[in-house]
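Recap quiz, item 2
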Amino acid sequence: MSNANLRKWVGFCFIAIYIFVGIPLWYKLTTVYRAPLPVKYIESLQKNKFQDIHLVIPVYVRSDTYRFPDIHDAIQVQVNHLLNSQEQQIPWSLQVLPYNESMQQANSEDNQFHVVTLVLDDFIGYSSAYDTKETIVYYDDAAVLSNDLPFFVAQTLVEHTFQLEWTHLNKTHESATTNNNVAISYDPNIHLSITLLSGDGNPVAWEIEPTLTDYFSPFRKLLSPLVNLTVDSSIVYHNDLNLHSLNGSYSNVTWFDLSHTIDLSELSSMTYYPEDSALNLAVVFPSASSTPDGLAFINGTRISDGLSALDWNSYLVPQWGVIIINKMPLKPNSVISEDYLEPMMYRFASDIFQLLGLTEGSQDLLSPYITIDSFKRLTTLQNLDKSVETLWSLVKLTQQFQGMSIPHEVSDNVLEALDLRFQIIDLLNDPGKGGDMVWNNALHLSNELVKLCETAFFNGEMVQQNFFPQEHMIAVYLPLLGPISAVMFFGFYNVMKEKDHKNEKNGIEREVTEEKLELKEAQNLHAIDGENEL
Amino acid sequence: MTIIGTLAYCILGTLLLCVAAEDEEPQIGVDDSLWYPYDETLVLKPLPNNDLLVSFSFQLQSEPFNPAISSMSFDAYEHYTTFPRAIPPLLESTGTRQFHLRFTRGFWDALSWGQLPHAGKQAGASGVELWSQVQATDQEQAFLNWKKLANSLSGLFCSSLNFIDESRTTFPRQSYVSDIVSPLFNDTEKLYLMRASLPNEPICTENLTPFIKLLPTRGKSGLTSLLDGHKLFDSLWNSISLDIATVCPEDEGSLCHYEMEAHVEMVAHVPSALARNERPIPKPLDGNTLRCDTEKPFDSYQCFPLPEPSEAHFKLSQLFARPINNGNLFANRPTRICADVDGSTWTAFLSVNDTIFSTHDNCFDLSNDQNESDIGYDFILESTDTTRVTPIVPVPIHVSRSLTGNGQDRGGMRIVFHNDKDTAVKLIYFESLPWFMRVYLSSLQITSTISPQLQENDVILDKYYLQAADRLRPAHLELTMLIPANADIVMTYQFDKALLQFAEYPPDANHGFEIDAAVITVLSLESSSALYELRTSTLLLSLSTPDFSMPYNVIILTSTIMGLIFGMLYNLMVKRMVTVEEADKITFQSGLKYKLLKLKEKFLKNKKTKTD
């Protein structure tokens, strides 16, 4: 056949167009836009989150009585030695520097530095100031003579002033980044909702405005570098959090029974806060109709030794807030005085530290300024960790769903977040003089970083599942591509097979011709049996 | 260490929360003059045909606040006493100065029942309706705030308000004017009035429950203890309304407060409601309990029913399946229940602990004392002739609206204004039409029953029309009209029905598309102030709906045809061409007969060799 080769070429061209033009074109037209993400870098960050961090905290040493020209160097050696004795999860160090006159000018109320003041006294000891970031170390002449002072200062600094860093940043600590069960996850804006609940519908009032202004405003100001609290108070009637069902026969109600009975749903729903997280304080008075003699299981609270027991118990609800249950119901038209609310506010304020994660357990906050300062650094680190986790989740998500589109904004946000991360790390690694401003700035940037990472992760186009699944695509295109591909490939196969077929045919033809020749020969020889006989 | 620790503890105590070691016990005092701004009233008004209008109204006021102080300020605290805590943060975050929410279902029979309660200002169109005044820098910002407000209210009231988008939102010009002037907290910004409605929203218990929770009595005491979804929604017409407004009185300086007005209204057919108590599951009555007209043919098989009895005696607890549990306890004004009845045939009683009281004006104040016996209050209405009711106030105008035309590509609207008064009626006609109704305003025609010479300009004093934009905004028609005395005015216009995109059809698209009710505000002829508001019923527009499996069918069919054509062309190009003889030969050689012949030949050949 003269056109066999031509036909093969045609078939081949079809296949070539199918493979080299059709498939890429189809892929191009049906594929979704996936912006490139720095996957490798984020993966390496996730594996070793604090690879490029070395937290440096400057501390200034001041001595009023004696002049020690090289004490800061000596303390530095001791501090390094102490810090090196422990394996650190996130590397950190103290930079001990001498205190000079220029520091005094820079050290304002808004921008305080860590200062260690050496005071000559009759005994050796230390104390942390309540309202500044100052640590006072007391020493006597004997300590100077035996050269114990540098070690003592180093120990005070590492194990007491920077106790939070010392415990949280070492390797044996569970994780510097995971929250405990009680604390809510950190958020720069937190709403605080204070509710007075009465089991009855009689009017009640409380002197909440003066109580809050007197006792809560300074507290808000104190916490303001860390969290901005917005506060509201309300009175809710006909709601005793389901306490009336507890006042049964048994008098010894445990926290376990309480947690199974108390119904917080009405306080948590039907609210609208612009802030992302909220903490609650519920002051509950039981209903006079169901519990006229008061709740038997409330045995009172003792705030300090000097005071008699108060008629309420306070319970901490993890990640929600505090419930204060009063023993006796309120009389109609009751006005709760500031005196009655004071101890409750005190208890609530110390619980807030726990709910915010500033303290663990029921320990007291001795030097809030230093603790809050440490907390700023820890929160910054925590935010860094959180943001890397978010980015990693984003990467995992995009890897998991290959058909999911990644809009350009996501990649922009990710790159911006990584830039911001570098800025924060620069601040942490080289905090200059280490004043409040630096740590506030680092915290502020890290909050922005978390927000940016979340914006990238929760991009509407990406997570709303409105991507076109691969299976769907196949289902739509198969009715067209299936028959066309089948026709083409089988046709091509046949045309390629034709050669063999022709050879085979030639073979048969040759066989037939041979047979015919044999027959002719035989006829010529008259050799076929029986022919003559017939 | 301990000394220092204690010292720090004390300083902490001083700054944070001073626990002074006082000798006296903390006290809880009693103030007998303690009350909060809250007011609740219930009015029962018998209507003709044994119907009963039940109107609950609640009024609340928030604690005063200073809008100039940010909530982030260390001394800023918000306090709530009776006002719901859920509302103010919502208003603050969306810049909303006032909003009005209406949940309405059923048909208000204006011919027999007369005017709507509160001159129609508390009743919405069928479905859910929301309008609000939002403070914003520009319209775009205002819309974003409005969207946020709608989404939040959607969550709060378990309704579909989140479906409010730009294609449903209008900016009314003359309608929806509030009596309360909203304050502007920032002079560089403006107030925007926005309105949207969802006509096909079913109103149910899930909307009522959050509504009750907003009120301080929470359904536990006072009038809210009567509110029960099963009874409220089992009525001929019901409406729940909520109005929140920001008010800054001049005499209070820079202080403002929020005011909340809530109404729950229903019209129940009393004999049916009472029968529902006896027979919760409807089943046929026994023959002997049927009320038959014995003057007409009457036997075991025939019964001409008598009209409903004109005597009545029923209790409120029978209608609502529960008594009133006390009055509200924390307001200076006690809970008030009134019966708006014709004194000659009707009597109203308040029942307290089996003792029955009556008053001259049929209004009762529920005392704030705790009701010891826990039976609660009950209200009894008795009548010797239920057909006599307080005079019905006729509505200023009757408006009915209907769709005309057939076919699925175009239609028409016909609105009839019926004024049976001797004076002309001035009104504003507001209509918001979805974008898929493409209105031809040029086809707007006015005809009248009284004078054929009546011109469009005689009736329509002012016309505002904003054309719809596909998927972006609805058509907005606002007409100021003057309807002559004793006349029927018919307004008609034509529209095209647009085709929707495949994904835009709602579930059950063949049901049709609900069209918003038109809002008619009747104005005073002299002062142009709003006298009465009414809404027409909603309309059901049927659009051409596709067969929803069509796209896939089309894909398969077209693909098959394309596959066939391609297959033929491809085969033509690639397959070998042979002549008929060659083809026959090949067929002959590949057939079964040829193979058999070959086999026979072979066999014969073998035989020959053997004999040889």
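Confidence is low (pLDDT under 50) at residues 527-534 of chain A.
Chain A touches chain B through 95 residues (CB under 8 Å).
End of item.
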